[in-house]
Amino acid sequence: AELREGYERFDPRAYLRNNYLPPRADFSSEEFVVPWKLRCLADTFASGEIRGQTLIDVGSGPTIYQLLSACDHFEEIVATDYLAVNREELGRWVRGDPGAFDWSPFIQHVCKIEGRGEPWQDKERRLRDRLRRILPIDVHRPDPLGAPLDPPADALLSAFCLEAVSPDRAAFARALLHVGSLLRPGGHALLLGALGESFYLAGPARLPVVP
């Protein structure tokens, strides 16, 4: 209940300003968190081992950076988030609405580190085409989407989510079990996060994280 109350104050635009604009969005060195995250994801998907028909992104928030390397390896990407305001923000980007957050510096950087010489606009278009569903999710329910995903996902991606919506480590473990039920047998689960983090900021919301 306390976590839900905190997330009622979540401001997607403030969160994006805090974390995905300069100075935080500094691409000059991989010592900074933003290019580190993009490199982790690019290297992981470049292996070619994680691929298939459907990828589900658990707790997308208002962001798409985590899907930029993934979109080359799946026919469909399903974004999910508990908050309607985040799902609306994602929808604005997918539709290309005026005023949607500008992810072009991230897309350009990913194209650069992937090194295929692809125009960044092609990757942007491909992700928009493949991001076909944006669904509500509650990772604390045994059936997080309210109904089984049919067919189950070939891969699961979750970046900075489960630890940020769980009150303690036991709840984190249960949430991981719940979202794992969305995967086909033998599918891959890819988690990206920060060790030792205890909170983050989204406008007026100061949100706890399980370290």
Describe the structure.
Helix content is 36%, strand content 21%. The protein has seven helices and seven strands. Strands 3-2-1-4-5 form a five-stranded parallel β-sheet. With 211 residues, it is an alpha/beta fold. It has one domain (1-19, 29-208): 3-Layer(aba) Sandwich (Rossmann fold).
Overall geometric form = globular
CATH architecture: 3-Layer(aba) Sandwich
Gap between N and C termini, in Å? 20 Å
CATH topology: Rossmann fold
Number of helices: 7
Arrangement of strands in the largest sheet: 3-2-1-4-5
For the secondary structure, the number of strands is 7
CATH superfamily: Vaccinia Virus protein VP39
Helix % is 25-40%
Quaternary status: single chain
Family: Belongs to the class I-like SAM-binding methyltransferase superfamily. NNMT/PNMT/TEMT family.
Pfam families: NNMT_PNMT_TEMT
Protein name: PNMT methyltransferase
GO biological process, one term: methylation
Based on the model shown, name its key terms.
single chain, 211 residues, alpha/beta, Rossmann fold, 7 helices, globular
Gist of the model:
The protein contains seven helices and seven strands; from the N terminus they run H-H-H-E-E-H-H-H-E-E-H-E-E-E. The protein has helices spanning 2-7, 12-20, 33-46, 84-95, 104-114, 120-130, 169-180; strands at 52-57, 74-81, 131-136, 153-159, 183-192, 199-202, 205-208. The strands form two sheets. Strands 3-2-1-4-5 form a five-stranded parallel sheet. Strands 6-7 form a two-stranded antiparallel ribbon.
